[in-house]
C-alpha cells in the first residue's frame, strides 16, 4: 500500500489488464508481501477500486524471497 511505483503501475495499466484478462491463455496475479495487511480497510478499498476482478495474494516474506529466487527479480513492481 505504501509503494508509489506499484500503485502507479497498477493504476496506469488497468485498461491494458482488462484486455489481457479476456485471453484464455493468460492469468494475471498480483502478489503483495505480508507487510501489506490484506484485511485492512485501505487495502480492501484499493483492491475494490483498482483490482476488483483480478486475483490478489499476500505471501509471507519467506515465500516472497523464494519467488524472487525462482523468477529472478530484485524488486517490485516487476513484470515478466
Question: What descriptors fit this protein?
Answer:
80 residues; alpha+beta; globular
Written as H for each helix and E for each strand, in order along the chain, the element string is: HHEHEH
Strand count, sense and closure of the main sheet? 2 strands, parallel
Report the principal-axis shape.
globular
Terminal-residue CA separation: 21 Å
The helix-and-strand class reads alpha+beta
Order of strands, main sheet, comes to 1-2
Helix fraction bin: 40-55%
User: What count of helical segments does DSSP give?
Assistant: 4
**Total number of strands:** 2
Structural write-up:
The structure is a single chain. With 80 residues, this protein is of the alpha+beta class. It is built from four helices and two strands, in the order ααβαβα. The chain has a two-stranded parallel ribbon.
Brief overview, please?
This protein is α+β, with helices and mostly antiparallel strands. Helix content is 48%, strand content 12%.
Write the SSE topology.
Elements: H1 4-12, H2 14-21, E1 29-33, H3 41-50, E2 55-59, H4 61-71
Parallel strand pairs: 1-2
